[in-house]
Fold:
Amino acid sequence: MTTRNESAAPEALLDALQKAQTILVCPHALPDGDAIGSALALTAALEKMGKRVTLASADPVPPEFLFLPGTEKVVGPDTLEGARFDAAVSVDASRLSRLGACEKYFRAVHMHLQIDHHATNTLFGHARWVDVHAAAAGCIVYRLIRALNVPVDADMAACLYCAISTDTSNFLSNGTTGEAFRIVAELVDCGLPLHDMARRLHLIKPEAQLRLMARALQTLRPFAGGKCVSAVLTPEDYAATGARVEHSFAVIDLLINMEGAEMAYLAYSPFPGTVRFSLRSRPPYDVSAIAEKMGGGGHVTAAGCEVKGELAACCARVDAAMLRELEAAR
Ligand SMILES: [Mn+2]
Structure:
């Protein structure tokens, strides 16, 4: 029996949560906005029901999500040593190993509950709500909070908005469902500070990142008549701006959205000697094969790889591969 794509609340999950007094909540390792936002909202709701809840994350909450209400309660895996729980809930994790260093403590609990929306999930939970059509784990957590009859407050709304808006690339991805919009409409009615949250999660950038992006855009180089475009970042660019590696990622989104572009890459080299490539394409063009040939991987329209060597020579290889892909797909 499978609970995939259940739209109604699974009785076994509601029952287990109602009976449990002490509950462990775990997002997946290296938590993203969906994992941490969903886990925080679920924790707050269970606490409102009078449960004693421990929210444990294998990795620290990323700095950009630390402003979310409740993150001060998140503990690391070590604090779980010797603790006992009536039930453990995993959030946004497709398999147990995704819980990272929390996995062994999760396994030690007798009742495993699972909330997930990944098509690749292994249905490991004893009771679960797995809906592969949900736009985010946060959509399922919202349904669950409603099914448990817990009123949604502004703090829960902020966490659920974080979950849903980040997993849908701010409601721009094809995975964005009508339900995602309906839930956010409800969250606005529950006191969600929409503009403030949208700004913090999707618009604000540190000065160092803007300066790094400016340097990358200085190197903008369309080729193949503008069907392809590239930009590069060198170790000097990171040193001069004080930007971090993760500040590079916004550049590729600008490149692939250049008018007329079908494929784009950013070659970035935060440290001398290695060059990382972030590749993007528009259908039907495939950049995953290009990345794989260079020792990386990814999806058809978004892939990456890391190569040793000199920047210009590495870029020449990717240029040639993109030109071949343009030819092949014609
Ligand atoms: Mn997710």
Summary: The chain has two domains: 11-203, 207-328.
